[in-house]
Write a structure and sequence with these properties.
By secondary structure, this protein is mainly beta. 3% of the residues lie in helices and 36% in strands.
Length: 483
Amino acid sequence: MKRIYSTLAFIFIAATTLSLLSCSKSETNSLSVPAKGIIVTKPGDSGTTTFDSSNITSIYPTSIPEGWTVEDINMYEGTITVTSPDLPYEEDEVQNGTLSLMGYTPTGNTRTISIYLAIVESTVDFYDQPANCYVVTKPDTRYTFNPMIGGSATPVATTKVRVLWETKSGLIQYLDMRDGKATFYIAGAKEDEDDEEVGVYPGNAVIGGYDQSDNLLWSWHIWVTNNDPTTAENTIVLNGQTVMSANLGAECNSNGSTDSEKIFDSFGLYYQWGRKDPFVGPATYDFSGNYDHTLTDYRDVSVAIDYVDSTADEGTSEWTTENPMSIIKGNKENGYDWLYSGHDNTLWSTTTKSESDPCPAGWRVPDASIYSNLTINEIYDNIDWSELQPMYGILLNDITSGEEYFFTAQGRRNYLDCRLDIINDDEFCPVPWSGYYWTATTEGEDASAMFFDLNTATRTWNGFDAKRAMHRANALPIRCVRE
């Protein structure tokens, strides 16, 4: 028998099937397990998950993996509890398998469901690291986090969790909420030829936390990457502060490569100033067609960003918390802020981590001084623009240290209609790409961003501004700074 722990050959959960045993056509019933699996971390451990049912009076197991035990099916609380095989394993016992269950209605109709069971010894616990973003780098691992308001220890009355969106179907697996903890599983990526693991499938997801009445209370960004942005090799030092070398949500820094995959992987996510929830970028690195990146939710159904106007109802921080997939167009009467009335300078902080800060634990949105010592590398004024354009980015010099750092030109979501723009549409001199990076510093009605662009008419006029005033309804990338 082959024993499998961290290298699980995951079987996607079989779709729910209906078997009618009576002639009733009017009866409605349903049975489902939102988490689709029960993951335990040690042999002999017990695990519990919830099920949702309608007009189901009893549930019985019909097929149980060898060595596993169904301890309890609680119809009143809607829970299923199993125990995994303990050491030493008997010859036929398995470490992962599928549990089949049958639910009965009062009239004898049935519904069958399947639940994946597995022992996964690799675990990562974020429970003592409250944040709005969690960095995930280990494959075949169960992750746990405390569903609190990010950047604080304020609890959220979460009773259930769901994937609101993910950039790759199945990126987040077996998401569950038990005993005040949210857990999910990240599978390993596979090579096509020999099926060997090569890390994780990179991508991004947002998990929503709901109360018993199905109201969305808060949401958390899961950043899945093979390049841990918090490690020394993936950070740089600017103005004496440690900064991530990749954009928030990106897989890497392309470092001037003209490879389209590396460029695309370096874009990361986009944020309206002061909001914690990210928005995806283009479907392709060159913005062809200017379509948004495709997304799916927990049902594996396609979902999309919702573009809304700023109104007295929608243009508030409270509304954005309940609608993290809605991007709000700039309100002209309020200086093109996404807020309908006034400007809230406390949403992000230049000194401490705020509750709406989108960075992982130990990191925050930087203040504008972080970019004050940067300038365009002089070699960019001596190279033909056609050589620079395919790089989608620019090399910036730190005038104090002499170090050089590459920043991706991934454009923005503009403040007028929130659509993606990479060309800086200047009436007299349109440029092929531009880059923007939010800071937590405010400038009156606006906020400060580091900006650069490639000028195709006069390359010596390549634009750079370490502190450009930008309307707050713009959605720009972020480089997080260590607290």
